From TrEMBL, chain B:
Keyword Cell membrane: yes
Highest classification ranks of the organism: Bacteria, Bacillati, Actinomycetota, Actinomycetes, Cryptosporangiales
Membrane topology listed for this record: Multi-pass membrane protein
Species in which this protein is naturally found: Cryptosporangium phraense
Protein name per Swiss-Prot or TrEMBL: Carbohydrate ABC transporter permease
Keyword Transcription regulation set for record: no
CDD domains: TM_PBP2 (cd06261)
PANTHER family recorded: INNER MEMBRANE ABC TRANSPORTER PERMEASE PROTEIN YCJP (PTHR32243:SF18), MALTOSE TRANSPORT SYSTEM PERMEASE-RELATED (PTHR32243)
Gene3D superfamilies: MetI-like (1.10.3720.10)
Record's keyword terms, sorted: Cell membrane, Membrane, Transmembrane, Transmembrane helix, Transport
Compartments it resides in: Cell membrane
Positions of transmembrane segments: 7-28, 72-96, 103-126, 138-164, 184-205, 238-259
InterPro entries: BP-dep_ABC_trans_perm, MetI-like, MetI-like_sf
Cellular component terms per the entry's GO annotation: plasma membrane
């Protein structure tokens, strides 16, 4: 979650030598015993809540029902009322657009900086790396507070630098979103940049020499060697960024709680408003299921990609 | 010639450094700047008379130490739990081939991608039912299960990297399997355990949504929730807010320096193979 929320949990995919079990071939109960604690935890704290979420999405469940412990099934009512609500569609479209902007900027800047890193001298590389690590390591809530301070209308340094004293960046939805996008991209770029850098560094120098012998110019060599090798890395990064940015809550909520006038409400904030703040748990559950369904596209693509590369043994 | 060729990349690099490092610098300078100077126009770029006043106000806020204690308690419990559970699971998937192994790994990967943000409604109701709202164990459970998949997935790589031959040699020398694991494998897993628990620590330490939704009484807040409400509590005390931010960032920054390399290396290793 956290991560994400949260720092972004990087799925760590280490190359894995094929396991060589001590008691090869024998049917052993031991591995199953070792898995029991994790399976129990996942069943109780993940599978069960997912099941509840799904079930709740078919119920009329508000504060009243909760207190009376009443279970009122209403079929697809929550779904139809959500899908028939133009406000919900606004939020969906806004969230998709917001995600696209964040991912696009993160990938473009991250890839660019990653490629820049391998071109710099040693000292410059270290300096850039340190500045990237700073942005990456600063906790999300801190980063949000920090950028709000820099965009403060009265004493903010941004207004001073731009020569726009007193400009209120949080007065309109578009510019509030701009600030939120900057916060997210600022924290997300380092991971992409470092990963691209690491990817380029794994390319053997001989490939470029061979390209040069064949008479390829610098740009041709880049297109023929660097791009194909980077493509799978970029694919993974784009999937992960999409998944992460689509469900961002902290930055959006902490900046202006979805304001001004609800113009920066994204799906997770919408779920919070419906579910916790207005106690319409059933409706919010349906919204959460729809959100997961939207995310599932990116998740399935990512899983397929990962399974092809990781688990083929 | 070389200098000319590097002019453009270097100029770009300076822009990159400014964009990424400047906010952190601005946080530091504001934290050390006397309140009067914070409101000066043009802004003071470097504090000539640095003060520790803001750190004093941050530390003397009611409940501050309670928040530190809450955050530490929740984070360390979640990390300890997930490390213990993940260690068992990672040994199983790294050392044995068994029916269902692949399905288990797919499950772990899928849970890792799952948006926990979408689950706060069922969690909220379950915790409400068991009277756990507003209590720290609720957070421990959520953080535990959200860092567990990552911990299993990462540890499995570390376990697999310990040569089986070492274990076999220990068995030949008369160790039981448990002894072989405890005396031979476990010590070699040290760095892996450190890396994964630091990562789990950072994730849980940072978490805001669940702490915000579940912890209603001010004395049960964790540091991120406190920090987010800090400014409202202070009016517009940016010096105090930035000092609080610095305090909250320090442990993360220190831990981060240890794991940063490992996180990147791991991800590309998986991607490049394709």
């Amino acid at each position: 979650m956290t991560v994400p929320t949260v720092t972004r949990p990087a799925p760590e995919l280490s190359p894995e030598p094929a396991p060589r079990p001590p008691g090869r071939g024998r049917r052993e109960p031991l591995p199953y015993v070792l898995l029991i604690p994790s399976l129990v935890a996942l069943a109780a704290l993940f599978v069960y809540p997912v099941f509840l979420l799904f079930r709740m999405s078919f119920q009329q469940l508000g504060f009243g029902e909760l207190v009376r412990r009443a279970t009122v099934y209403t079929g697809f009512d929550n779904y139809t009322s959500l899908l028939g609500d133009p406000e919900f569609w606004h939020v969906v479209v806004r969230t998709v657009a917001f995600t696209a902007v964040c991912v696009g900027l993160t990938m473009a800047l991250g890839t660019g900086i990653g490629l820049l890193l391998v071109r710099l001298g040693r000292k410059m590389t270290i300096a850039v790396s340190i500045s990237l690590v700073l942005a990456w390591a600063i906790p999300i809530v801190t980063a949000t507070t920090l950028w709000q301070w820099m965009f403060d209308s009265t004493y903010g340094v941004v207004n001073f630098v731009l020569g726009t004293p007193g400009h209120d960046w949080f007065a309109s939805g578009v510019s509030t979103f701009a600030v939120i996008v900057i916060i997210i991209v600022w924290q997300a770029v380092p991971f992409v940049a470092f990963t691209v850098q690491a990817g380029v560094l794994t390319i053997p120098e001989e490939y470029y020499e061979a390209a040069r012998m064949d008479g390829a110019s610098g740009f041709r060599a880049f297109r023929a060697v660097t791009v194909p090798i980077l493509r799978p890395i970029l694919t993974v990064l784009a999937f992960l960024s999409t998944i992460w940015d689509f469900k961002v809550f902290t930055q959006v909520f902490a900046v202006r709680q979805g304001g001004p006038d609800g113009s920066t409400v994204t799906l997770p904030v919408y779920l919070y408003n419906q579910g916790i703040a207005s106690s319409q748990y059933g409706l919010a559950a349906a919204g959460a299921v729809l959100m997961v369904a939207l995310l599932a596209i990116a998740m399935v693509l990512y899983l397929r990609h990962m399974l092809r590369t990781e688990l083929d043994e | 010639m070389r200098l000319v060729r590097r002019a453009w990349p270097n100029a770009l690099a300076v822009v990159v450094i400014l964009f990424f490092a400047f906010p952190a610098y601005w946080m530091l300078r504001t934290a050390f700047l006397p309140t009067l100077d914070i409101q000066s126009d043009p802004p003071v770029v470097f504090p000539t008379h640095p003060t520790l006043d803001h750190f004093g106000t941050a530390l003397s806020r009611p409940f501050f130490w309670t928040y530190v204690r809450n955050s530490l308690l929740v984070t360390l419990s979640a990390v300890a739990l997930s490390t213990a559970v993940a260690l068992l699971a990672s040994v199983a998937v790294a050392r044995f081939r068994f029916r269902g192994r692949k399905a288990y790994l797919v499950l772990i990967l899928a849970v890792q991608l799952a948006p926990f943000e979408a689950l706060f409604i069922p969690y909220f109701l379950v915790f409400r039912q068991f009277d756990l709202l507003n209590r720290l164990p609720a957070l421990v459970m959520v953080y535990f299960v959200s860092i567990l998949p990552f911990t299993i997935w990462t540890l499995r790589g570390f376990v697999a990297a310990v040569p089986v031959e070492l274990e076999e040699a220990a068995l030949v020398d008369g160790c039981t399997r448990w002894q072989a694991f405890r005396r031979v494998v476990l010590p070699l897993l040290g760095p892996g355990l450190v890396a994964t628990s630091i990562f789990g620590f950072i994730t849980a330490w940072n978490e805001y949504l669940y702490a915000f939704v579940f912890m209603r009484d001010p004395q049960h807040y964790t540091l991120p929730v406190w920090l987010a409400t800090f400014r409202t509590a202070f009016g517009d005390d940016w010096g105090g807010a930035m000092a609080g931010s610095v305090l909250f960032t320090l442990p993360v920054l220190i831990f981060f320096l240890f794991v940063q390399r490992r996180m990147v290396g791991g991800l590309t290793a998986g991607a490049v193979k394709g």
